[in-house]
Specification:
Elements lengths: L1 E5 L8 H14 L4 E5 L5 H5 L11 H5 L9 E2 L5 E4 L5 H8 L8 H12 L4 E5 L6 H9 L2 E7 L2 H19 L7 E8 L6 H14 L12 H8 L4 H4 L4 H15 L6
Parallel strand pairs: 1-5, 1-6, 2-4, 2-5, 6-7
Antiparallel strand pairs: 3-4
Helix pairs in contact: 1-11, 5-6
The chain binds adenosine-5'-triphosphate and magnesium ion (MG).
The site of magnesium ion has 5 residues, from helix 1.
Length: about 260
């Protein structure tokens, strides 16, 4: 099982949209995917129609004796499962910091899942802050996928998250976390501004940037309001096709299994 943190401390860049739609697109390709919603806002779980009820998030696993297995819920996609988020997860920021092992606690509680070989990929939808939840996700992850919006403010955010990634490695908290990929989101090809931002990011990060760029589409917000993945809402929409292409590109980057 490979753990991928989908993270950027900047808000509203497409982390949750990418988590939902990459997870669903990988699942329809036959991958066994677990989506861990680590954002107390709970948008990733609700967008897949999974209710965010008290007691169902990872909070009681992080803070107490509960087992991670008990929090896994099924979705309409047979090979996609979700651990939902609730507002109680916000309490984990406060609770966890009291424990000595707070930065590696998430890694520890996910360990049984690695041992089980029940999932191929565990995607973590991170909250938009530099708090303990996001740091824990980076400490537990094998890979970091950074969505950035195609605009100049996005570039500042990118520099910051790349810095944080380096700190996680150099501090020894998680020396093995790789930069899995950078995903350009909400692209509006009519503006030279968006094209210039994509060009700049590609110049700096070369092949780490996915060739697939996610276009801006109203179907994204619509699908979320209907609590559906894009694939279920409009299978031929260009954002749907882009997330499918991203899933293919993501899979092509994985080492071949023997
Ligand atoms: N490709 C897209 N086209 C149009 N709208 C989009 C697209 N991607 C995301 N959005 C919209 O932009 C908003 C922010 O997206 P999203 O919630 O995925 O970002 P986020 O990084 O998870 O935000 P937060 O930091 O608050 O967790 C949402 O309203 C979403 O519907
Ligand atoms: Mg989000």
């Amino acid at each position: 099982m490979k753990i991928i943190a989908i993270a950027n401390q900047k808000g509203g860049v497409g982390k949750t949209t990418t988590s939902i739609n990459l997870a669903a697109s990988l699942a329809v390709r036959g991958a066994r995917v677990l989506l861990l919603d680590l954002d107390p806002q709970g948008n990733a779980s609700s967008a897949l129609g999974v209710p965010c009820e008290e007691g169902q998030s990872l909070y009681s696993v992080l803070a107490g004796p509960d087992s991670v297995d008990d929090k896994i819920q099924s979705t309409r996609f047979p090979t996609l499962h979700v651990i939902p988020a609730t507002t109680e997860l916000a309490g984990a920021e406060v609770e966890l910091v009291k424990a000595d092992n707070h930065l590696v606690r998430l890694r520890e509680v996910l360990e049984p899942l690695r041992a089980q070989n029940r999932f191929d990929y565990l995607l973590i939808d991170c909250p938009p802050s530099l708090g303990i939840l996001m740091t824990s996700a980076l400490s537990a992850a094998d890979g970091l996928l950074i969505p950035i919006q195609c605009e100049y403010f996005g570039l500042e955010g990118l520099a910051r998250i790349v810095d944080i990634h380096q700190q996680i490695i150099s501090s020894g908290i998680n020396a093995g976390v790789q930069l899995e990929g950078i995903l350009m989101t909400m692209y509006d090809g009519r503006t030279s501004h968006a094209r210039a931002v994509v060009e700049e990011v590609r110049k700096a990060f070369e092949d780490i940037v996915y060739r697939t760029v996610i276009p801006r589409s109203i179907a994204v917000a619509e699908s979320q309001s209907f609590e559906k993945a894009l694939l279920e809402y409009d299978s031929s929409n260009r954002a749907t096709l882009a997330y499918k292409a991203l899933a293919d590109e993501f899979l092509a980057r994985q080492p071949v299994k023997c």
